Amino acid sequence: MAEIRAEEQTLAISKTFLIKPKLKPKARTLPQTPESKYWSSFKSTQIPNLVSSISSLSFSPSPPHPFAAAYYASVSLFSPLSLSDGNVSPSSTISSFSDVVSSISFRSDGLLLAASDLSGLVQVFDVKTRTPLRRLRSHTRPVRFVKYPVLDKLHLLSGGDDAVVKFWDVAGESVVLDLTGHKDYVRCGDCSPVSSDLFVTGSYDHTVKVWDVRVEDSRSVLEVNHGKPVEDVIYLPSGGLIATAGGNSVKIWDLIGGGRMVHSMESHNKTVTSICVGRIRKENCGDESMEDRILSVGLDGYMKVFDYGNMRVTHSMRFPAPLMSVDFSPDCRTRVIGTSNGIIFAGRRKGKENVESGGGWNVLGFESISEPERRGLRPTHFRYFHRGQSEKPVEGDYLVMRNKKVKLAEHDKLLKKFRHKDALVSVLNKKSRENVVAVMEELVTRKKLLKCVSNLDADELGLLLMFLSKNATMPRYSSLLMGLTGKVIEMRAEDIRSSDPLKGHIRNLKRSIEEELRIQHSLQEIQGIISPLLRIAGRR
Amino acid sequence: MMMRGGRSLVSSPPAFSNDAKKLLVCTSNTVSVFSTATGLQITSLEGHTALVTSVVVVPPSSPAAKVLCYCWTASLDGTIRYWDFSVPELMKTIDIRVPIFNMVIPSFLDIPAEDKGKHRDLFAYVFTEDTKETQEKTKALRRQIRKCNLSKSRLVGRLILGETKKPEVLTVSPSGKFFGIRNKCKLRIWKVPDQGSEHAAVRKITLHHTKKITVIAFHPTQRVIAAGDVTGRILTWRGFGNIAFAGNNGVEKQKLINIQEDKPGVRDNDDADSCTTWHWHSAEVNVLSFSSDGAYLYSGGKEGVLVVWQLDTGKKKFLPRIGSPLLYFIDSPDPTLSAISCADNQIHLLKMPSMGILKTISGIKTPCCCPEMCKGLGNGIAFDQTAGLVALRTENYCIQFYSLFDDRGISEVQVCERNHQPGDDVTVIVTAVALSVDGSLMSTSEVKLAEEGIGGLVCLKFWQAGSQNKEFSLSTIVYEPHRDAGISAVTFHPSGNMVVSSSFGGDFKIWRCNNDIIQSDQMHQNFSWTCHAVGSYKKRPMTAAAFSADGSVLAVAAETLITLWNPYKNVLLAVLGDTLTPIVNLSFLGKSDNLAAASCGSNPQLSVWSMSKLSLSWSYKLRIEAVASAVDSSSFAALALLPESSSETTFKGRDGVILLYNATNPVPTAIWSVKKAMGGALGFLQVNPSSVEEVDGKTPEVLLAYMNGDHEYVVFDPYCKDAHEVSISQKEGLSALELKGQGGQYGYASIYGELPEFSEKRPETPWVPSFPSERPWETIFSGSSHNLPPLTNLCSAFLESLLEKRTAAVE
Predict the structure, then answer these.
(1) Is the separation of the CB atoms in B432 and B381 below 8 Å?
(2) CA of A174, closest CA in chain B: separation in Å?
(3) What sections of A12-61 are H helices per DSSP?
(4) How far apart are CA B455 and CA B435, in angstroms?
(5) How many CB atoms lie within 10 A of CB B807?
(6) Phi-psi region of B265 (alpha: psi -120 to 50; beta: other; left: phi over 0)
(7) Fewest Cβ atoms closer than 10 Å to its Cβ: which of B9, B38, B414, B674?
(8) What are the protein's UniProt keywords (chain B) (predicted)?
């Protein structure tokens, strides 16, 4: 860094102290952690008027990561780039559905979109042309979820109210496997990020089952019991852990360890409806690293960020409606939350627009492209001698610091010149009562306040009385101002009697003091009622 | 071993060395040499046995001789010494056997260059006290100006230039031709005789004024003299002594010319051409000095403002708000450097045309005067045991941190954001200062006095130290912590995260620290203090408070009673009763289970209470000024003021004794008698082996620091039997430092000979336990209201108390 040097090595012999009001007690709020700073840095945009509950949200895995929202009988695609400009209208809408769309999923290359609806139909669309390419009909009851596997472009997973999980061959529109085992509606599922054969489904029968297509008799490989109807289940990026949401809790399970519960997060007050994986960019000691978090939303209107490495909730955010769905973009720049009343809260973080996201989502890993470092100007360069005032210091420069000039308010200047009355009048003309009281206190320490009061002319006395009538009963200032009020009336009784406007001020003063007396009386009454009770309680 | 310090740096004007790289400062018996570049002490000239009153640096006779470092010093011990202060080495001692109040050496200022080869006698003019002729002469005129031949090491016999009642300051002109003194409303100016013969007649003139003159200054080149008076006027006489000093027959001429010439402003036919008056200062002028080129006049006084007058036009420039009365202004040979000495024991080195402070040589600040109503609130001195620092309140609303081992000021903390104006009424007072054991936290309380009953304010402030250098920053302010009642004591818990403040309003509060560690660019701890508990005992004023060494017990003095509390749960544990007068000082004695309480008033008392027995173990009727206990031993030291009668006879002006006790034994293990004990303080310091030199191959365990009322201090090993005498050297101390080998025994015999008469020692009385278990309902509600015990506990205790119960004492 540039070295900082003071302009002069001498110290001023005298310091100038400003007249400052007394400090107010601060509310003891927790300081913002870097993590909550990160989460609140998503600049929120509302996408309103989407008719009904947002049942599902999904980001395209390919940049620039447009996202699709399913609401009522239509699916809309939004571009996150337009969010930054404040444009909230969808870029395209697919509405060839006969019933409410329940779930949507992008293929891993982002070219196809699968959507399921409550009529039991699963459709596959071309994202660009919005034409339905395949219609997969086999479910007898409403389909609740559909999911493309992460590493597989040919198959599709779906589940519904008929308690059957189906594994589809998309090209042939045929069911490869019927996985039966759930005893109630299947509500959710996810495919393993590390294997194309493994996936999990969650059902209202409280269980989450892990399936493997390679298993012969279509039985589940593993089963964990969440204890509540399961609303959502996701694989965590490692592929070894899953997170389930149901009831008020989000539970994390270790699949490799045989379905052991690792942790249960129970900070929501109402049912958790949706969870997804979010990422945070941690910067410690210069090098960046990404850490995964679980974002969960619930009917209580809260979004919670759960650090499953440290097993604690690191951030929580409130929204004004029950939340139904959440998703987080693979480039870590957008998070969208859908509510039950048709509003999408989309948050977008500032960043380089054209960053080549290698897809942190990719298993291959994220490689940041190092930028060439900008070099500072050297004295060998011609432009070095044409630098202006706004030039930033470079390493090795000596910084000559100018002593900061103390800014004096008008009353400070007057007090410095010992013009006490003028200082009082000037601060009374300003509208800050803290400063008025501060100047009065300073005058008290100089033993000049009463002298000032006796020197005020009629107009200035009116100012003072107006101030007193407004503020004398305020508890913060009353200890000084009540005493002063008494002194002022005592000292300037003659002037007040002879002037009508001053009399008006006195009337106001009287009124406010009567009001205060009434309050004090009623408080005393309450105290009178309470204190015998307290005494009896103490005696017992 | 013994360490002295805290001496006044401003008892006499300092002097710059010829290269302006060193500053010679008279510090009581020694002359300290400071570096002007760093502001730190380089060395000291030790040898005088009384206060050094003057230091005169020998000016260079040629530019090449600038590096020579010779000086003359004069002292009240009657000697004039010649030093090489670069080494430092004593070269010569002249004993004239009369105390010297002041010395000037005008002759070497005007040695012509060609005279260098010739040896000439060097004369000094000294202000002495005539000790011999006291009986014969009137006592009034005992101070004399005499001439001293430094080359031949003797006073010039029977040559008395002038006599005054009080010792005055001799001022010599920069040219070395004149010197003068002020004497009430008159100025006396002598002309230094040209040839250095001994008995050459010295001619003098007198200038008159109507007010008392306080300070005079000679112009460097012209015959101009300036004088300041008590009302703040500055008078400038031009062309003084034109007649008297002109030729040989001046006396006749004077009479002739007087009639003819018009002399504006000159009084009484004084020998001057004109006299002009400037008036800016509102109080007396203490500092007058011409700049070396003679174009400017510097003046300063009680207001603490340095005024620069342009001599020809009378235009003024100011250096305001220095915060303390100015005492001396010294120009250095380097034109960009000068020094001002302030009454608060600071010497500021100024960068000259801009008048910014380059460095401050910071002595210990003088005690500040308090209005009467705030007396007895403690002396505002706190010791930092580990670092060997003392924190003391100063007049400009600061807390000064002073290193006892290094004998220099470390830093200052501005407690109230106000500028101090000397001479103003004191309306804001820092009443208490407390440091945590590790010295990283500080708590101060201040009082703003009300103006005719309105606007009074009590503030409690908590401070935290920065990473280094005792840079304290404010962490919490509490306005009116005990409503409008004043704070009597503030004490830190040994762990440092708890503070108790007791008030005269009848309650005490326990404050706890919540530290949030903010992880910004570096680790930064942010402390905030909140009230944890409030306690009171029968609405009595709480006068003192102390924590036990392990922090488990809090003792709060409720006037004459001592209440013991659990500070964590705020439960009253026990009440110890009754001293005769209110307790002002409480102190747990190290790790032992004893508590020392000092009470003042008409029946002063030092009492030691046993915590295990909850009873008084012993007590003395002594006026205790301060009590200090070592952290890890059971001994404690008390500073007691002697009664007036005994101090005059047996202690030779010493008004206090330090008594070192073992807690269990009422017989003191050691006694030292001290001077100026009023307002003194005591503190044990932990020994840092690197900072203390070893004595006889072993380092002392703890050191005891005693600071007297003038903030001079001495640090010594209380268990070392050799250094038994603590005699704080002082400004007016004419008597030499005598060392009495067995002073302790002497003092003990003199005071405690009649020990049985006034001792309230009651070792045999069966102690009455005032433990609350017998009648719990009496004490149980004396605690804080929010902390009532649960009903189940109360019920059982109450029912048990109704039943006849065999007490523990019967067993």
Answers:
(1) no
(2) 58
(3) 34-40
(4) 29
(5) 10
(6) left
(7) B38
(8) Nucleus, Repeat, Ribosome biogenesis, rRNA processing, WD repeat
Which pair of tokens denotes residue B202? 């010295």
> What's phi and psi for B759, nearest 5 deg?
-80, 140
Please give the interface size between A and B, counted as residue pairs whose CB atoms are below 8 Å apart.
83
Number of C-beta neighbours around residue A372 at 10 A: 5
Residue A368 to residue A288: CA distance in whole angstroms: 9
CB contact under 8 A, A13 and B516: no
Distance from CA of A439 to the nearest CA of B (A): 11
- Both structure tokens of A284: 């410690």
Distances (CA, A) of A411 to A406, A439, B704: 14, 8, 50
Closest CA in chain A for residue B455: A480
CA distance A537 to chain B (A): 9
Using the Cβ of B796 and the Cβ atoms of chain A, whether some distance falls under 8 Å is answered with: no
CA distances to B403, B487, B488, B493, B559 from B542, in Å: 32, 9, 7, 18, 6
pTM: 0.70
Which residues have a Cβ under 8 Å from the Cβ of A457 and sit 6 or more positions away? Answer: none
Separation between Cα atoms, residue A191 and residue A200, nearest integer Å: 6
Interatomic CA distance for residues B760 and B754, integer angstroms? 12
Rounded distance between C-alpha atoms, residue A483 and residue B144, angstroms: 60
Per-residue tokens: B80:
């004039």
CA-wise closest residue to B160 among B185, B175, B141, B183? B141
Total Cβ atoms within 10 A of residue B736:
12
Antiparallel, parallel or unpaired: β B389-393 and B381-384: antiparallel
- Cα separations in angstroms, A436 against A185, A429, A431, A480: 70, 9, 9, 12
CB atoms within 10 A of CB A170: 21
Rg (CA), chain B: 31
Say how far apart CA A116 and CA A142 lie, in whole Å.
Answer: 8
Q: Which residue type sits at A360? A: G
| Structural contact between residues B391 and B370, judged by C-beta atoms closer than 8 angstroms | no
User: Which residues in A have their CB inside 8 Å of a CB on B?
Assistant: 8-15, 17-18, 20, 22-23, 28, 30-31, 34, 440-441, 444-447, 449-450, 479-480, 483-484, 487, 534, 538, 540
Beta bridge partners of A272: A298
- List, in order, residues 6 or more apart from B467 with CB less than 8 Å away: none
Identity of residue B642? L
Burial A85-109 (b: 16+ CB within 10 A, else e): eeeeebeeebeebeebbbbbbbbbe
Are residues B177 and B192 in contact, defined by beta-carbon separation less than 8 angstroms?
yes
Q: Which residue, among B108, B92, B202, has the nearest Cα to B153 in the 3D structure?
A: B92
The encoded tokens of residue A437 equal 């009281």
CA B326/CA B214 separation, integer angstroms: 13
B392 phi and psi, to 5 degrees? -135, 145
The b/e string for B367-378 (b: 16+ C-beta within 10 A; e otherwise) is bbebeeeeeebb
CA-based end-to-end distance of chain A: 69
Both tokens of B2, joined, read 């013994």
Query: What is the enclosing helix (H) or strand (E) of B22?
Result: strand B22-27
Give this complex's ipTM.
0.78
Which two structure tokens, joined as six digits, stand for B797? 């205790």
List the one residue out of B96, B242, B98 whose CA is nearest residue B178.
B242
How many beta carbons lie within 10 A of that of residue B40, not counting itself?
Answer: 11
Distance, CA of B1 to CA of B691 (rounded, Å): 13
